[in-house]
Automatic annotation (TrEMBL):
The organism's taxonomic lineage, starting at the top: Bacteria, Bacillati, Bacillota, Clostridia, Peptostreptococcales
Recorded GO MF terms: kinase activity
UniProt keyword list: Kinase, Transferase
Name assigned to this protein: Carbohydrate kinase family protein
Gene Ontology biological process terms, A to Z: phosphate-containing compound metabolic process
Entries under InterPro entries matching the protein: PfkB_dom, Ribo/fructo_kinase, Ribokinase-like
UniProt source species: Sinanaerobacter chloroacetimidivorans
All residue ranges annotated as the Carbohydrate kinase PfkB domain in the record: 37-288
Length: 312
């Protein structure tokens, strides 16, 4: 089985390249602008595909020009569209304010991409996948419990579940968040998101306790690397230092690499190194994702990738 199910949302990223992001009530200049198909789902999927697995993106898109653009993109880039339905509602978009140092600020208009239905996940995808990724954005709809119930069935079938909480994790209903965390095999927050998940508990003690119960925790800390908590052990990893031009999608690429690692049987201790390398490459690409080859990864990441090529 070479497939990875990616539950998130497809939309249009509207890039605005600015000299600097102004403070409230301030002013600034737009240096350039462009549109690109985006959303966590395609950012994760692109890395999964670059590494050699098959991503099945799960999303609705609108029956409108942007929805048509997304469907054309799927066909042109040869992404499976089995779990993408074009129908009622409007396609969402995200304003991405990109500064010269690669920092970005988002403002998102929610469209139909955040609404889940069982009809989205095709029988072919169910049969081809045993790994699933869920982004926190997909849990912002109160009806997202339908997705969690579906994932519980997948878990019974032997699926491994990865949860990427995303920056709006504090907006997810508490009951949905609790249920999602219960069924996750790996959770990948940054430090800010992890603090939301931990609540009033001390962060490291909470992460260790989660890992002792069987949920691996990877807490990212940007250019400083991060820490994998697995089976009660604390395993730091380093980031790969690059001259970043756009950090949009780097975290999603990290998640895509971890999904690929689970699919391929790569231990998480090695998977975080592959993920850190993939994220660093994406940070050098203008846009939220892009084609890259394994040869662009660090030598260590390339060795890890080659070592497990015959496992799947």
């Amino acid at each position: 089985m070479n497939g990875i199910l990616i539950c998130g949302g497809l939309l249009i990223d509207r890039y605005l390249l600015v000299d600097q992001y102004p403070g409230r009530g301030g002013d600034g200049y737009i240096l350039d602008s462009f549109d690109v198909v985006g959303g966590c789902t395609v950012n994760v999927a692109r890395t999964v595909k670059n590494l050699g697995a098959t991503p099945y993106m799960v999303s609705s898109v609108g029956n409108d020009p942007w929805g048509n653009e997304i469907m054309d993109f799927m066909k042109k880039e040869q992404f499976p569209a089995n779990c993408v339905i074009q129908g009622e509602g409007s396609t969402g978009y995200c304003l991405v304010f990109l500064e010269p140092d690669g920092e970005r600020t988002f403002l998102t208009f929610k469209g139909c991409e955040g609404i889940f239905s069982d009809a989205l996940i095709s029988e072919k995808a169910e049969n081809c996948c045993r790994t699933a990724v869920v982004t926190g954005y997909y849990l912002l709809d109160p009806a997202a419990m339908k997705l969690i119930e579906k994932l519980k069935k997948f878990k019974e079938w032997g699926f491994q579940i990865i949860f990427d909480p995303s920056p709006l994790v504090d907006k997810i209903q508490a009951d949905l968040l609790e249920e999602m965390m219960k069924i996750s095999d790996v959770i990948i927050p940054n430090r800010s998101e992890a603090k939301v998940l931990a609540g009033n508990k001390e962060l490291e003690q909470w992460a260790i306790a989660c890992s002792e119960r069987g949920t691996a925790m990877i807490i990212k800390n940007g250019s400083q690397g991060g820490i994998l908590y697995k089976k009660g052990k604390k395993i730091p990893y380093d980031a790969v230092q690059v001259d970043a031009i756009d950090t949009t999608g780097a975290g999603d690429s990290f998640t895509g690499s971890i999904a690929y690692s689970l699919l391929s049987g790569i231990p998480l201790e090695k998977g975080v190194l592959l993920a850190a390398s993939s994220a660093s490459v994406v940070a050098t690409i203008k846009g939220p994702h892009g084609n890259f080859s394994v040869s662009q990864l660090t030598e260590e990441a390339q060795r890890i990738w080659r070592e497990y090529q015959n496992v799947r």
